[in-house]
Amino acid sequence: MTEGVAKKFMFVNRTAPYGTAYALESLEVVLITAAFDQDVSLVFVEDGVWQLKKGQQTKGIETKNFSPTYRALEGYDVEKLYVERASLEARGLTEADLIVDVTVLDAGDLGKLMAEQDVVLSF
Amino acid sequence: MLNIVNKSPLDRNALDACLRIAAPGALLLIEDGVYAAVRGTAAESRITAALARFRVYALLPDLEARAVADRVIDGVTTIDYGGFVDLVAEHNACQSWL
Fold first, then answer.
1. How many domains does chain B fold into?
2. Would you call B64 an interface residue with chain A, using a CB distance cutoff of 8 Å?
3. Backbone angles phi, psi at B38, to 5 degrees
4. What is the CATH number of the domain that holds A17?
5. Where are the beta strands (DSSP E) in A64-117?
6. What is the CATH number of the domain that holds B39?
7. What total of structural domains would you count in chain A?
8. CB distance B66–A54 less than 8 Å?
């Protein structure tokens, strides 16, 4: 395989898990993108921060609990996870509530990071 | 009337529409609607205010899936699927605020 160009891909997650399929679909595309050795970062804003909430138990709704996958991202060299501070605070959450280590950013800094990307995909 | 809300109050205005328009009665939060029943969010006051006019229920399996079952607002009753069926049977009609 010829060596391709690595682009900066950002996945912006703005939806809660389980209520819609967006969160799971996003994870799948993230893993595919990482498999192509691209520069991947994930952003969680608004209800997207609920995706990372520790302690999800989905047996009762008979749906796959995909939250452990966020912990496995490191193994795919996906280590840039960003959460917007105001989104966390509006939901009564702190970093200690999250299943993975993240970088918490203010909206302004997040916006700058978004502007540096080659590709931004929204879920 | 049993009012049912399945959208997050921090993303959509389904809950606001329900609380603004519906006559006092019962409110059941399911799916992403259960985030309205969580303590400490920016939407908390909407449910604490609604408790004066509505009996408020939240579906426990949906709370557990979203890892928020341990932070339900006081006064909100959690129910399982059997309780959901009972509520539907007890009321003359259901209204889903989609």
1. 1
2. yes
3. -95, 135
4. 3.40.1260.10
5. 80-84, 103-105
6. 3.40.1260.10
7. 1
8. no
Whether A2 maps to a domain, the answer reads: no
Distance CA A58, CA B94 (A): 26
B chain contacts of residue A65, beta-carbon cutoff 8 Å: 65
Q: Which helix (H) or strand (E) holds B26?
A: strand B25-29
- Looking at the domain assignment, is residue A25 inside a domain? yes
A58 reaches B (C-beta below 8 A)? yes
Q: Is A10 helix (H, G, I), strand (E, B) or coil?
A: strand
Predicted confidence (pLDDT) per residue in A18-45, tens digit: 999 999 999 999 999 999 999 999 999 9
Chain A interface, best mutation among B5, B7, B32, by max A CB count within 10 A: B32
Distance CA B37, CA B77 (A): 9
Stated pTM of the model: 0.94
Residue A98 lies in domain:
8-122
- What SS3 state is found at A120? strand
Report the C-alpha gap between B97 and B60 in whole angstroms.
19
The interface pTM score, or ipTM, of the predicted complex is: 0.93
Three-class secondary structure of residue B51 per DSSP: coil
Read off the pLDDT of residues B45-57 as tens digits, 9 standing for 90 and up: 999 999 999 999 9
